[in-house]
Each structure stands twice: as C-alpha cells, then as structure tokens.
Write a structure and sequence with these properties.
The structure is a single chain. The chain has three helices and two strands; from the N terminus they run βαβαα. It is mainly alpha-helical. A two-stranded antiparallel sheet has the order 1-2. Helix 2 runs antiparallel to helix 3.
C-alpha cells in the first residue's frame, strides 16, 4: 500500500480538492484514481475509463 501525504496529494487529485488528512490506497484504488484524473484532465473519455476499470460507464 502507498500512503499519501499533503505534499503528494496535489499531484494526484484535482486542483479543486484539498485534503489535510492522510489517505492510504491499495494498488487497485491507486490505479482507479489515476484513471479518474485522466478523465478529469480530458486525456481519457468516461467510456474508456469504464473499460479500464472494468465498470459500466454510469459507475465511472
């Protein structure tokens, strides 16, 4: 597992998200977070993100 602290969070989360607590993510959740960031940045469509995460589009 990877532990994220304030100094790492700005690189992984949206510019609109501020967190002051420690967050621990397993490898699966880390991968999902990266995919969702790509969707938010416009580098990946929601339908493509669903395929990457093995989820239906509506759950993305």
């Amino acid at each position: 597992m990877l532990m994220f602290y304030d100094s790492v969070l700005p690189q992984l989360f949206s510019k609109n998200v501020l967190m002051e607590e420690m967050l621990t993510l397993n490898m699966k959740d880390q991968a999902r977070l990266q995919v969702l960031n790509e969707v938010e940045e416009g580098r990946l469509e929601v339908s493509g993100a669903g395929g990457v995460m093995s989820l239906p589009e509506r759950e993305v």
